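User: Show me a protein chain along with its predicted structure.
Assistant: Here is one chain, sequence first, then structure tokens.
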Amino acid sequence: MTERLILASKSQARIVLLSNAGLVFDTVAADVCEATLKANRLAEDATPGRIAADLADAKAIEVSNRYRGALVIGADQTLEFDVRLFDKPADLAEARRQLLMLRGRTHRLHAAASLATGGDVVWRTLETATLQVRAFSDAFLAKYLAAEAEEIIHCVGAYRLEGLGAQLFERIEGDYFTILGLPLLGVLEALRSRGALQS
């Protein structure tokens, strides 16, 4: 690799995805107030996809300003449901409320990624997946929340597709990596095009 590669995130899901794909990189948490950026963009009537892209840009730019010689990956994901933007649940009670709202309904996940160097975004992408939640029972929901309690409060929508959360769905349209929070194939191609990965 010709440039130091940094992931501007401490997200375990994104770290695992990039590590499993064979990348060697450092992780640095971006100093970005996501709540403020989201509120400002919502006030401007930005779409959920645009908000995900803006957050990914902001994270990549902030970290690349601190590590000027590095190539920085920024990423973010938003959940769009009924013209509403979901955030990560604050606790299990909120996770339960979110899942009950999604039960039997369709929602969309927008996953964005950006590459930045020297404070400038040099590449970006946005992918969307559509997910149909099944009409699960209250008993299943109770079992699910008990089993996944430690994990789901860190996930937008309160589910992890790579765990028991797969049982929440009856149909999914879109890229698996996008659902996990990183449009991985696009990122890999962008890194190859820059010579940061072997072609």
